[in-house]
Amino acid sequence: MRTSLINQIIVYAIIITGALLFVFPFIYMILTTFFLGTNTLPKPDQVFSVNINFTNYITVWNKNNFVNYFMNSVIVTSVAMVGSLLLGALTAYGFARFTFPGKELIFRLFLLTIFIPGVINIIPQFVIIKEMGLVNTYSGLWLVYIAGGVIGNVFFLRGFFESIPKELEESVLIDGGGNWRIFWNIYLPQSLPALGTLAIFIFQGTWEEYFLALTLIKSEALRTLPIAILMFNDKYSTNYGQVFAASVIALLPVILLYMTFQKKFVQSGYNEGGVKG
Amino acid sequence: MTIEYWHTYSDAEEAVLTEKIKPLFEEAYPNIELKLTRMPYEGLKQQVIAGVAGDAAPDLMRMDIVWVPEFAAQNSLMDLSKLDGFEELKANTFEAPMATNYYNGGYYGVPVNTNTKVAIYNKATLAEAGLTEPPKTMDELVAAAEKLKSKGKYGIGISGIHAWGLAPWFWSLGGSITNEDYTEVDGYLNSEASVKALETIVDWNNRGLVLPVMLGGEPGTWDGIISGEYLMSDDGPWFYSTKIAEKEATGFDPLEETVRAVMPAGDGGSRSVIGGENLVIFANSKHPEEAWTFAKWMLTEEPQKIMAETGLIPSNKAAAEAMTSMNIPFVDTYVEQLKTALPRTPIPQWGELEAIFNLAFEKAIRGEQEPKAALDDAVKQIEAILK
Amino acid sequence: MSSSFMSPEIRNAPHTRKSRLAIGLRQWMAVLPFVALGFIGTAVFVLYPMVRNIMISFQDFSIMPNATNAWVGFDNYLKVFQDPNDRFFIALRNTFLNVAATVPVNWFLAVFFAVLINAKFVKFKIAFRTIYYLPIVTSWIIIALLFKYLFADGDGGIINFILHKQLGIISEPISWRNHYWSAMVMIWLFHIWKTVGWGVVIYLAALQGIPKDLYEAADIDGANVMQKFWRITIPLLKPITLFVVINLINGAFGFFPQVYFITQGGPMNQTHVIPSLIYIEAFQNMKFGPASAMGVMMGLLVFILTYTQMKKSEDSACFKEDR
Question: Do the strands B110-116 and B106-107 form a parallel or antiparallel pair, or are they unpaired?
Fold first, then answer.
């Protein structure tokens, strides 16, 4: 049965309206970045007739050490991403492939904590980092980012690992390889789409992280991008053109990464399994 | 040797700091390097708390005067009054700003600059209200605001529901927060005069005379004054230094298009609020001696005069004297207003006190509570924290 | 799960206590190299902070070095309950309101858009999915700044501009962040806009798992679109719906940047949620004890809710790994 043309048009109209609702704020933000009037809220009719220019982008890029903060965020985020993926995959492998007493109990306990809002832990996490003497270091940030993310990442990866057919291991076992070889040669390559998806989530979460970075990092030289963006939010007035130019620059890497890899996006294995069952 | 200095100077002020102050200091003290760190205003207090707690605070900070007692009470600042040369410095410094550093028998900072707010009017809007010069009294201002109301413009420039925004108006209308020793609120914040002052503000707001920005609306005070939608608001000298620096880009000349005056007088006279910053040295500073050297130097006449170019009023007496002949176009009104301006309560509990104060005023202004009841409630809560 | 992974010798081993212990130990030794770091990290940076939080909630705690941090019993909890402005209860109420207001809308929009995009004749499915998911990958701070700007007071904000100047639906511009309900609505719209794409993507994936022949059979029976939707799609999506709803509830429970960056709890502390209250109480007012007490209470609440949810969903396969 073919859907009638009218129904097709209605469906298209609805989903295109939806898409516009999601895209429009971004367009409006980009238009505002072309606006040079400082500190005044540009009026909507002015925004739509603005001339395209990149003055604000150039100003922002050269102001408040923005480039340094951008590079800092690249460093912080890359290390946190690689570390989180590795630790998450290792732990998930342990849960997926091994049997050991208390496994499900530990997994349940971990799961329970995942829903408790992170802000509650900021005070004690700061105290712990302070006692380790790691305030104002990236090591402190990385420890919390990586260790704090293990549970969520294990939760995400375990299902994928469990769906990997056991027969694949045999070739490794025949070659005399052990559990490590199976991890490296079978589990990691077999779950690349899942790892890639997770990588983008971790990248985004770390890239925009503000509260912990603000609490732990004190030197100007070590600041990350979210702090830099709020630096444009001045005490006396906000220069919207510059704030949003900085925002667009900050959003660009995440959006590009996402656009590039989104075709390979996967959801957690539980979901897909849920439907089939 | 490097000492780190945290500040929140504005763009225009920061330029003077990095281009003039830093080279001058490093020339006088070649063995000390001054490392300047501009802090984000957003989340600043949290930064300072975490910095002190995590042993990652800088050597010095230019800190808002109202924070000093609170951080001193947390043992995070150094008592400077026992240091070499303090008495001499104190003798050269104005007493009122110096007093904002006093806590528990010591001085936990030195005033680097002082400031206040004056009434800034849009010239064209003033003419539209039928006036040739700024109103001298609250009654005149109210009359002008009534006239502008029909034109969709606002006349009474209260900039926000916080002590910094409200106090000049509350005091000028005859209100008070505490007694002179800052020990009693009962009978002051809820006195008849205070209730009447708050009632007046509530009434103004109900009649639609007060800037929408007071309750968080738009436009902001600067935008409103520049566009002429607001007749006036009260603000500090940074309005002028910032806008003069941006004159080329925006085409707005604040000296041409606005006029200044002291706050219009009410039952309490013409009152504004004393603002300013103190230089504090953190208790865990790695180089307290060098930090103190810088603090002492920063309070001498020459650097004080340089910073005065931005309209920040020196706390050094000689520099303030010299400032009058420096031809800074907008500073006269600020100096004049300072003579009658009042400080916010300099106690460690100020942060909590202000939260209660703000809430009481907001409730009354939004019509959630009668002014008298709101102030009585506030007094009860403040008494609990002062104990 | 994974009984299939157990070697036969273990399964058939005599279940004496000693051998069980030995086997357990051997199993732990085998797995430990893989999970040790993850376990230690979780223990130090997730579990221990929770314990520490509970400790702080019973202390007169100062974060400053060399503070005495005396034990004060339930003082901090009393302070929270005796707050003359009832901020904790207001925050608690708002938390439930946020769930009630956002979860149904979020869920409905997710199913609605996913089903439409999944329609056979729709082209560029991936493009739509990408666009709908875009807000998810952007930063909370930036979107918050953007929403404050879009919802600005007066006709300067595009939302007021459209509603007032263009459409004339409202008689005067709304100052959104200025009144309790409009501020709450703004927070909800912000949250829904930012997160609805997640549900859409999950449902799109789930819809692809529904066998096509079911619909074909329904077509033969002459079922219309709505009948197919209610009789086939919705029942088959039930397990995934549970998963989505649980996540939406937890998301709505964890409001923080939504409130902190939009209203800071204003006007008059009316829009606070517990996390934003905790943050401000700790890092603005330096009241770490009461802040931790609120954290413990919130943690307990979430713990109980999650635990019962898990129990309930036990059979529905969402959290069950071994099927």
Answer: unpaired
